[in-house]
Specification:
alpha/beta; Aspartate Aminotransferase, domain 2; Aspartate Aminotransferase, domain 1; seven-stranded mixed beta sheet; three-stranded antiparallel beta sheet
């Protein structure tokens, strides 16, 4: 069996050593005679797995002691509702600021409006969502319960390359697609959340990192399983957690540590992005619509000069073992997702193919 280079936006490629360890331990985890999928979440075996995953995550991010890590279900789409349920009533505000940078921001805004007043403090819509609105243009409300951003838009390929200053108002970020791709000053944020299926593990696990003073503000109608304080008080065991996904995430955390931590991941990801964007900018056959200062290091959208060639491009790529390159249906074109697990060799193979395709069709 030969493995392809998988450019899927998510669920995405996982590190091969992690997959091999999962396979080795599938039927018998550490002599227990059980698969992790069969264990009681309250048994000593899984509790050890859970504790190690939490400890590794805290270590990688250098989490301050006043932040809690929660392992939940539902993905970022569920968190679009769970975040306002927990925070929009803080100090009786019932209002929040949102920055609109694309499709995932818009989903967050739509959901939050069910629970309070939403002020879209800045939007990239006028520019076709090709850049993050400059911080000085944001019209923030000092009375807002929080400010929400999506730090990386997987569809449009727009990423924040700065940690916004929001003063005394807590900053909340959907980091589903770039969490653990680079070092992060968590103290600049009140809450970070994200689905695991990009850089962390399989679909099914959602990570929430929340400052302790933001616990205990849930709206009265919030289901107990969605109340961050209830989840934190029960160490993410209020209901049965996604045990297998937590186990895999712990292996990925260990793999990142073995690569040199988040600083090494950042260098690795920047090298891949520089290689791919460098070719796009040098070619008249391909183009990237995103402004250079806001380009994602995780998701690189691009288009061919003639969209009639799209099908041929994708077919030829697949024949070379370069898969999942089709752009999101809402924007078309191509998209290469180059998360942590994508090796530099994969991006080089893509660039080599792009050059060959251009030579034949340009």
């Amino acid at each position: 069996m030969s493995r392809v280079y998988n450019f899927s936006a998510g669920p995405a490629a996982l590190p091969e050593p992690v997959l091999r360890q999962c396979a080795d331990e599938m039927l018998d985890w550490h002599g227990s005679g059980m698969s992790v999928m069969e264990m009681s979440h309250r048994g000593p075996e899984f509790m050890a797995i859970h504790a190690e995953a939490q400890a590794l995550l805290r270590q990688l991010l250098g989490l301050p002691s006043n932040y809690r890590t929660l392992f939940l279900q539902g993905g970022a789409i569920a968190e679009n509702a769970i975040v306002p349920m927990n925070l929009i009533g803080r100090a009786n505000a019932r209002k929040a600021d949102y920055i609109d940078t694309g499709e995932w921001s818009r989903k967050s805004i739509k959901e939050a409006k069910k629970y309070g007043q939403v002020n879209v403090a800045a939007s990239g819509s006028a520019g076709g969502y090709t850049a993050v609105p400059p911080r000085e243009t944001w019209q923030l409300d000092p009375g807002a319960a929080y400010v929400h951003i999506c730090s990386n838009e997987t569809i449009g390929g727009v990423e924040y390359h700065f940690d916004p200053d929001t003063g005394d108002v807590p900053l909340v970020a959907d980091m589903s697609s770039n969490l653990l791709s680079r070092p992060l000053d968590v103290s600049r944020y009140g809450l970070i959340y994200g689905g695991a299926q990009k850089n962390i593990g399989p679909a099914g696990l959602t990570i929430v990192i929340v400052r302790e003073d933001l616990l205990g503000h849930a709206l009265p109608e919030t289901p107990s399983a969605f109340d961050y304080k209830t989840v934190a008080d029960n160490d993410s065991m209020y209901n049965t957690p996604p045990t297998w996904a937590i186990y895999v995430a712990g292996l990925v955390f260990r793999w990142i540590e073995q690569q040199g931590g988040l600083a090494a991941m950042a260098a690795h990801n920047q090298a891949k992005a520089d290689l791919l964007y460098g070719h796009l900018d040098a070619s008249g056959f391909y183009r990237c619509p995103v402004q250079p200062g806001s380009r994602s290091r995780m998701n690189v959208p691009f288009k061919l000069a003639d969209e009639k060639l799209d099908a041929a491009f994708l077919k030829g790529a697949e024949e070379r073992g370069l898969v999942q390159l089709k752009g999101h249906r809402s924007v078309g074109g191509m998209r290469a997702s180059i998360y942590n697990a994508m090796p530099l060799a994969g991006v080089q193979a893509l660039v080599d193919y792009m050059k060959a395709f251009e030579a034949r069709h340009g």
